[in-house]
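Submission checklist for the structure archive. All mandatory fields must be present; incomplete records are returned to the submitter.

[x] Identifier: Xylose isomerase
[x] Organism: Zostera marina
[x] Residue count: 475
[x] Sequence attached
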Amino acid sequence: MEISKLLFAVLCLSLTFSSVIAESSKICPANLDGNDSGEWDGEFFPGIPKINYEGPKSKNPLSFKWYNAEEEILGKEMKDWMRFSVAFWHTFRGTGGDPFGAPTKVWPWEDGTNSLDMAKRRMRANFEFLEKLGVDKWCFHDRDIAPEGNTLKESNANLDEIVTLAKELQGTKIHPLWGTAQLFFNPRYMHGAATSPDMAVYTYAAAQVKKAMEVTHYLGGENYVFWGGREGYQTLLNTDMERELDHYATFLQAAADWKKKIGFNGTLLIEPKPQEPTKHQYDWDAATTASFLRKYGLIGEFKLNVECNHATLSGHSCHHELETARINGLLGNIDANTGDPQVGWDTDEFLTDISEATLVMLSVVRNGGLAPGGFNFDAKLRRESTDVVDLFIAHISGMDTLARGLRNVAKLIEDGTLAELVRNRYKTFDSEFGSQIEAGKVDFETLEKKAFELGEPRVASGKQELAEMIFQSVL
């Protein structure tokens, strides 16, 4: 037995759940040795039952209190509003390591290597986790699920081998919410991928995206995401920004063309982020990205994958970013997470704030839902959370929080007071003359005459405190 496995066995024997969980629910793998093909004898989560809905009064941490998948809310079952997905990279590749400290987690599907055998073991753990959590969607980066080889051909072969296994394991019930290519970790992408000043890097990135789109399509993925973590600049002194933006648009157009050529009917999504790792990234926020798409004639080809933590980094609320995407017809998917305002960087925490979740669901309901998008938990355990059961508890909490947000939105709609307050603020535009203004039928000369007729405006109160009181009353 390898040293890392032996250490894990010792750790596992010493770990138990909190006092509310039965002694039989200790998390220890059934067999640490496995075999040379990435197989696993037994379960990865032997003490974890299928997670069920038990209602708000339940004290069982391994149960849903607010998320009841088949319950109908506002004309749809909760599962159809939510379309939850598990992020492979955070859930199965997260180690707890950070720039200041070594990894803190030793998972039963890891042995410290990144071999094909370990990749297969992680994939098996992924599908067991999905089945027990009751989620039928997952998201992945190509290099998260399969190791990068010494050449592009070797990397593609590795990916094919893992994707073949994933296709077998997911069956007909489970499929990716989206897939993507990881174009930010390898040193070749230090200056960007689609915006790199090096043509060889641009072509390599295109080949990687081509392959990632193909495997996403093969697995039945419903969307494909572009996250431009390195698509930006550190200083304009050595950057031709116009040329880089042109290259980026050409790259995305080629991706849209390839999507059609291979018969992939999924939605292409761009994920805005303002900074980190690049000082200034071209997809800064929803408005910037919408403007970029419109300028280059891509507005009909792409929608946005809005991440709440990215919204706050750009100086906005998640609700603002969702509404900006929605009113531009671009709201496609949500990465459900949050950041810590005292830290100020991309901490990727699970969303547990009921108020924020209610605002998020308000935009989703106004949008008529997210399908074929959904909620992807691009969130990770805290460095200090090291038990396997914590993975379940974190996802349960995130799912319950958003479900509670949906229930709150239903209360707001049923009550109608908040909507009436908003309508009243704009009621003067519901007049005949106001309607003509909104229809663009009134010129400045006519507006001037009306201003003389009306005299000095008597501006009504905005009733912000009342709006906040109404909103808080449903939480």
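[x] Structure attached
Curator remark: Confidence is low (pLDDT under 50) at residues 1-37. Residues 415 and 470 are 9 Å apart (CA to CA).
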